[in-house]
Structure formats: C-alpha cells, structure tokens
Amino acid sequence: MVSVRGELAAYLRRTEGRLVLVAASSAVAALLVGVVGVTAVHGRQDQLDEAVDRRVALAAAALDVYRDLADADAYSLNAVLVGPQQAPDLQKRFRQDVFDAADALRVASARDPEGTSSAKVRELTDLLPEYVRLVEVGWSNARTNQPVGTSYLSQASFLVRGRILVVADDLQREQTEALKAAQVSAGSPTWAVFAVGVLALGVLLLAHRFVARRTRRRFNVGLAASAALVLVAMVWLATASAFTAGHASDSVRELDELVAPLAKARNEGRLADGDEARMLIFPKADDVRRLRGALESAASGIDGAAEQAPPGEERDQVRRAGDALRSWRAHDDLLLEPRLSPPTYEETAVLITRPADDQTTTYAQQVDEHLSAAIRLHTKHSVASAVSARGSMAGVDVVLAVLLTAAAAAAVAGLWPRIAEYYR
Amino acid sequence: MRAATRASTAVVAVLACLAACAAPTPPLREDRPAPVILPQGYASEAVHPPEPAKCVSNADAGLSLNPAALLHAPDGTPTGPKLAEIRERGRLTVGVSQTTPLSSRRDLATGEMEGFEVDIAKGIARGLFGVDDASRLSLVTVPTDRRLFTLDTTENRAARADDENLRDIPSVDMVIADVSVTCGRVDTYGLKYSAPYLATNTGLMVRDKGERIDEPKDLVGRKVCSGAGTTNIDEILDIRDDQRAHGLPEVIPVSTSDTSDCLMLLQQGLVDAIYTDVLILEGFHTQDPGTVVLGYRNKESRVGVAMAKQDDDLIRFVNEVLEGMRANGSMERSRDRWYPDPATRPKLLAATYVD
C-alpha cells in the first residue's frame, strides 16, 4: 500500500503525471460547472412550474372565491328588497355565485391537497353550506314577511364578511405572495454557477500556462476550446436568467400594480353593494360611514390602477370602471348625504336594486363587470409573462450539459497529445 | 429435514406478516362536527347591564313630568326649545325595533313599519306637526343593546367618546322600543321616561310543549337567551346567581345584541329557551307557531318612552299626547288591534306625575 502511494507521488512529480493531473482537473472543473448549472436550472424550472401550474391557479381560485362570495352577499340581501317578480333572478345569481365559489375551492383543493393552503380551503369548504343554509332560511322567512328572516340574513352576512371573506382574503394574499416569491426567486441571478464557472476558467487558465511552460507550445487548442465552451455556457445561462428575470418581473409587476388594486377595488365594490341593502334590512350604526368609505377606497384604488395601466384600451377599460363608480357615488347621494327629507324605504330599495333610467344594469354591476374584465386581462398578462419566464429557462439544462461535457472532453483532448508523447 | 421445514415455515410467516404490515392502508376520513355559526354580539357568558352607583326606586323612575306645565303659544301650539328644534328640522326621529311583531316591525315588502309602538310614534308626530304626514316621522331601527345610547345626553356622549363602537350610533329624539322603566337607566344613559303606557311581564318561551318546563329554574344546565343590556338578562342572571349562591345546578344565561336573534337561535337548537318580555314572545310565537310561550310570568314591569333628561318640554309634550290617546281611546284601539287575544293583552296604565 505504501509503495503504491509512493509510486503515485513519484509519478505525479514527473511531467507526464502532472499533465494527467492537469487534464483531470480541467475536465472535473468543466463537469462541475455543468452539474451545478444543471441543478440550478432544474431548481428554477421547478419554481416556475410550481408558479405556473399551481400558484397561478390557487391565487386565481382564491380571488374568485372572494369575489363570488362578496357578490353572493350583495345578492342575498338585494333579493329581499325587490318584488316577487325579480327575486328569483337575484336568488339564481346568488346560487350561481355560491356554485362558482365551491368550484373554485374544488380547484384550490385539487391543486394543493396537502399544502399550506389546505387548512384555509378546508375552513372555507366547511363554512359554505352553513352560509347557504342561513341565507335560504332567511329568504324563506322573508317571503312570508317574518322579521326573523332578517336575523338569519344578518347572521349569514356576518358569517360571510366576518369569517369567510377574511379567510378567502388570507388565502388569496398568501398564494399571490407565494407566486411572486417563486417568480422573483426563479429570476434571480445564478451566482453559485457563475462562481464555479469563474473557478473553472481559472483552472483552465492555469492549465494552459502550465502546458505552455512545460511543453513550450504556447497555445493549446483543446484547453482554449474548453474555456470558450465554459464561457459560452455562462453567457447562455446569464442570458436565459436575464430573460427569465425580465418576464418574471413583468408578471409580478402586473400582479402588484394592476391585479391586486383592481381586485381590492372590486371586492370593496361588492361589499358596498351589500352595504346598501344592509342599511335597509338590518341597519347598523355606522352603515353610511362604511358605505361612503368603501366607495371612496374603491375609487382611489381604481384611479391608482388606471395610472399604472398601459395607455390605450387597457387604461380606458380601468377608467370606465372609475366612471361607473363615480356615477354610482352620485346616484347614492340620496343615501350618503344628510338631507331634510330622506328617501323612503321603497325609494331607497328602488335606488339600490334598479338601474338608472338610461342604463340596463346598476352602476354597482357595471363597476363589477368592468373591473372583472380588467382583472381577467391583467391576470392573463401576468400568467403569459410567467409562462414566458418558464420558456426562457426551457432547454437551458440540456445546453449546459452538452456544452460543459464538450468542454471537459476538449480539455482532455487538448492535453492528450502532450501526455501521449511521454508514452511513445 | 423437519427442522428445516419448520424454519422455512416460520420465515414465510414472518415475511407474510411484514408484507401485511407494509401494505398501504387507505386514509380514513376524519370525523368532524359541523361548524356552529353564532350571530354577531352573541355572548355565551352574559353579563349584567351597567348599574350606576346611585339609583332611586323603579317606582319613582316612572313618575314623569306633568303635561299641565307645558307652555303653549297663543294659538295653542305646545312650545319649548326641543320642540322648536324638531319643528325646524321638520322631522321627528324615533328609535324603534323592526323585528318585534305586534309591537314594532317592518314589512319587508313595503318597508312600512307597523305595530302598537309605531302607532304611538305616529301619534306623537301627528301631535307635533299637526298633520298625518309619513315624511314627518323618521323611524330609526337600532339593536336592543344599543337603543338607549341613541339619546343625545351628556352620559351617552361620554360613553361614545370612550367606546369607538358607539361613535356612529345615530341620534334620536326618543326611543319607543319596549323600554322597561328602571331607575338604573336614568343615571346610566341620562334619560327620563314618559308616563308608562303599558304594563307587561317577563315570560319564557321554549321549542316544544312536551318538555316539562314551568319556570327558568327547570332549565338547569341549559341555555336561556335574552337581549344584551335588557332588564331580562339582568333577571335571568339574578336567577343564575341565586342558584349559584345556594350551590344548586344553574341555568346558562346567554345574550344577543338584538333580542330577535334569540328566536333564530331557538329555531336552530342553539339555545333551549328565550327569557324576555311576554309581548315580544307573543310576537315571536306569531312567526313560529311551533314554539310555546309558557304560563310563567315574572314581576311586572312598566314600559315608557325614553327621552334625554334635559328635554323637559318634549317629555311633557309626549305625556300630553299619551294622555290624549288614552282619553280618545286610540291607545286602547291600537292595543286591541295588535293584541287581539284578551288573555295575552297588555294592561294600559294611567299616568302618574312627579309634579
């Protein structure tokens, strides 16, 4: 054993031994860059797959759950204020909203059965049947003009606003943050790969200097080719990472500056729609203040989003929502501003549930429709950017594997003739 | 050879056991109870309403201001600073309940308010403005536990300054919402009462006749619901405290923000009985004939209109209107209309004054 080690040490002290060592080191350095690079790329691809396949669907489902149930809350109350001819239509919309919310929860549950969202999805799934039961019993009593119906509807509204929407909001925020984090992380520079790459280039440079000194051949094609391939691999990876970061940043910006404020404004709009009916069915002390605050906050969110939207049709769409909201605010002036002769119950019910004379839908519905269209569009843009980010990383692992295997082979091939000279 | 066979059999048996243990078992669905949904303001640990340090007797609290001292203009119109303020505003604002059929309820289809107490409010507005005009009367609905905070008094202003939840409560000129006359409220809310217009008792409602329950003491270990801040929750807590002092099993008083929520909880099986004014219970019974109002009656209480204590002219004016309604029979007719059953009809009271 001792003699083998001694022979090996003696061999490595000789030039041919050192050349073998240099060839092996160069090859290992190139392969190491490949392994680290491919691992990093796989990690980023996994993050982007997770973002596109799971987080986007979960965030969208959570957004839908909130919107659908805030909408259901408004319809559950408006259905009591309209006449028996219109009530079935509003009740149908309530049931459609609940169905859509349940469907969104099914999607969320399927996408993340054991993940962080599962507890919240389970809580929402547990509460939904109770909510529907309270509303249906409330309607049933209200139809026969029993005041206890308002107690059931009040309890249902308290449940949906006090618990269900709070959990849905948490879920949506959590999933959006996770989606953004995954994209930001996937777009971050691959510093470890670049560090190993620089190390590999250093090894190849040293190898080249050693060979030039020992063999008096100034230029080794194999080692130069190997260094070039490592460099190309680094540039390729840096370029792909830059594209990924750009697309990921576009996606996150779209979520942050457009989807989030628009969704918040839409949610406030739906809650304000419900607040109007609550003021009549079970008035609370701070109804007017809350309604005024919700409309003002929604208007400010829409105006902020309009500033961020690209000029043209996209900005116009957001502005249409803002215009509808301002019309809604003006229409509600009778409710919001103190006056000597406040509107009667029936006048207020008509004000809330019937469209203005020159309109086919209420201003509340118009705000919801414009905002929903804008949210759909910008969510689509965000998803498209996330898909592009993933596309930018596609195949980079294969390119790295091929280039760096070739770099290792070139280093060995470049040194092989010099080594072979000692064994002729 | 035999030993080898035994050893092989043992090895096969052990492997079979291990294989069986390693076989995946399907996950079983966890047994979970359905969530219990309770209304806003529900308190499973009910508390006594605030009791001020100084308190005259409840009998004295019912002695109101004599309308004979009310000033009148030469044309006979009653005058006073508060009356002038309301006339200038053009509208009398009255705090009422909207969920107590017979006394005061809202028709959800038309929005119209109706009931015995609504008739009284309409009578006061008519007396004040001299016309029968619905736009002259604004009926503001407030939950039971907040109704007396709606009066614009020094005490209520201080309470609103201290409690953010009370800040946005609307202000009203008077509250006509089955307000029992108690001395404690005079100091807590800074109010004064009109001469009481009717007498009533606390009663007990359960879901079903089959239950052997005659009085609250038969409901030990069961939940009994009353509106928060009412004299009823005070009484049921007293019964519980008495049971506790004697080491007896106790009833479980629970309270809700609005008394009408108790009916919903009773229908859902979340409480076992409702302990409140028998007139309210009669209204609940019309909504759910499956419920039973028991024959139990606790001590009599008198019901009056609550107003801010500084509004002497308004208090005297309300007493004048109530006297008129008693004299011309409109109060009795309204009472008989809303409570047609002589067995459950509340007793109208003659006025007594302090001056």
TrEMBL record, chain A:
Top-level lineage group: Bacteria
Name of the protein described by the UniProt record: Secreted protein
Transmembrane stretches, start-end: 20-41, 191-211, 223-245, 398-416
Keywords from the UniProt entry: Membrane, Transmembrane, Transmembrane helix
Native species: Umezawaea tangerina
Automatic annotation (TrEMBL), chain B:
InterPro entries: Bact_solute-bind_prot3, Solute-binding_3/MltF_N
UniProt GO BP: amino acid transport
Domain Solute-binding protein family 3/N-terminal: 91-342
Entry-linked Gene3D superfamilies: Periplasmic binding protein-like II
GO cellular component labels: extracellular region; outer membrane-bounded periplasmic space
Keywords: Signal, Transport
Record's signal peptide: 1-22
PANTHER family linked: ABC TRANSPORTER GLUTAMINE-BINDING PROTEIN GLNH, AMINO ACID ABC TRANSPORTER PERMEASE
Entry similarity comment: Belongs to the bacterial solute-binding protein 3 family.
Protein name as it appears in the record: Polar amino acid transport system substrate-binding protein
